[in-house]
Design goal:
Elements (H helix, E strand, L loop, with lengths): L1 H21 E19 L2 E8 L6 E11 L2 E10 L17 E8 L3 E9 L1 H6 L4 H5 L20 E9 L6 E8 L11 E10 L2 E15 L2 H4 L3 E2 L2 E2 L6 E17 L2 E14 L2 E15 L4 E12 L2 E13 L4 E13 L5 E2 L3 E2 L4 E12 L1
Antiparallel strand pairs: 1-2, 1-3, 1-21, 3-4, 4-5, 5-6, 6-7, 7-8, 8-9, 9-10, 10-13, 11-12, 13-14, 14-15, 15-16, 16-17, 17-18, 18-21, 19-20
Length: about 350
């Protein structure tokens, strides 16, 4: 009898170990903090503490359960925060970056439901200067084209599909529900695709959003748009926004070239304006630990133009820890003010920003 009980206990323990081996939950995160200098912030120079420059501050949980036969359950919970203040990036929303659950198949792809990002951030964004050089403040003004994971990229009430990669090609589609019977606010469609062959990588995305809030006042320094007063940082809600973007990179030995083009059509009250950005640069891996990069973009909207040049230096102490030092110079014309993303507007058309800090992944 005792031998039978021991055998049964060993079988149960082996079964429990097998279950644990088929499921996993991973805690991960990113912390980034530094200091900087701004030549013109609301009319005066300033020394600042800055966070999330190299990568966004965030923590999260991701999990996989192997269901067998190439089928898995997947989930992700991700929250953005500020290392220098401890505050959540979106007050009142714990998992403000992503929160989804779904099913993944090796053969048919992955479908997920919840709060997710569209394909501009996911597919085109990695080819931008900001992500390639590792500098959040190198994203385009106001993040109107959604390449940076900040307002208004995160989308709630969505269902998303990603195909498996076949011959280097991967594509996806997403739909966002309004969850209301009489409003189009939140209705979203997004499509994207990537292709990789040897040293060449390409991506394209197209999205449509209805009743979308855009960061035109604090993000671009505009005081009015399409006849609407934006003083006191008033929010601007577009009837419809149609966002198209393409990007790509090529690896040439230690040098990586990258470029992005985006065109955002902003429609309101029967009128439309285009926000367009051209972005390109290069990274050079001097040593396995040291990378330097340079890039520039120019963006236009409603007769205004913003242009920025970025120089970046990144030294890796390890795979998880980097030191960085970046310089950005932004010039705005046609009556606009310079407004480096994540920093704040100048009082004139010129703004220089120097940022240096430390980033750590866990």
């Amino acid at each position: 009898m005792n031998k039978s009980r021991v055998a049964l206990a060993l079988c149960l323990a082996a079964g429990a170990a097998n279950v644990r081996a088929q499921s996993s939950v991973t805690l991960y995160g990113s912390m980034d903090a530094g200091v900087g200098y701004v030549s013109n912030l609301h009319g005066g120079h300033a020394f600042i503490a800055e966070q999330g420059t190299f990568q966004a501050d965030r923590w999260g949980l991701t999990g996989v359960e192997d269901l067998g036969g190439g089928l898995k359950t997947v989930f992700k919970l991700e929250s953005g925060f500020s290392t220098i203040s401890g505050a959540m990036s979106s007050a009142g929303t714990l998992f403000n970056r992503q929160a989804y659950v779904g099913i993944s198949s090796d053969r048919f792809g992955t479908i997920t439901l919840g709060r997710q990002t569209d394909f501009h951030f996911e597919m085109v964004g990695p080819f931008s200067n900001a992500q390639s050089l590792g500098d959040f403040s190198a994203f385009h003004p106001g993040n109107i084209d959604g390449l940076g994971n900040t307002v208004p990229v995160e989308l709630s009430n969505t269902v998303k599909y990603r195909s498996p990669t076949i011959a280097g090609l991967n594509f996806g589609a997403m739909y966002g529900f309004t969850n209301q019977s009489s409003s189009t606010a939140g209705r979203t469609m997004s499509f994207g695709g990537t292709y990789g062959y040897g040293p060449v990588k390409l991506a394209a995305a197209y999205s449509e959003y209805h009743d979308r809030t855009l960061n035109l006042a604090s993000g671009l320094g505009l005081t009015s748009f399409e006849g609407e007063n934006l003083s006191s940082n008033a929010a601007f809600v577009a009837d419809a926004v149609r966002n198209a973007g393409i990007g790509g990179s090529m690896q040439l030995g230690r040098v990586q070239l990258h470029a992005v083009f985006t065109d955002v059509r902003i429609e309101t009250s029967g009128h439309a304006e285009h926000y367009r950005a051209i972005d390109g640069g290069a990274n050079v891996q001097i040593t396995p630990a040291y990378m330097i990069g340079a890039g520039a973009w120019t963006t236009t909207l409603a007769g205004h133009r913003w242009t920025q040049v970025t120089l970046a230096n990144v030294y890796s102490l390890s795979k998880a820890t980097q030191l960085y030092a970046d310089v950005m110079v932004e010039q705005a014309g046609s009556g606009a003010v310079a407004d480096t993303i994540g920093i704040g507007p100048a009082s004139t058309g010129r703004q220089t920003v120097i940022l240096t800090g430390i980033h750590h992944l866990f």
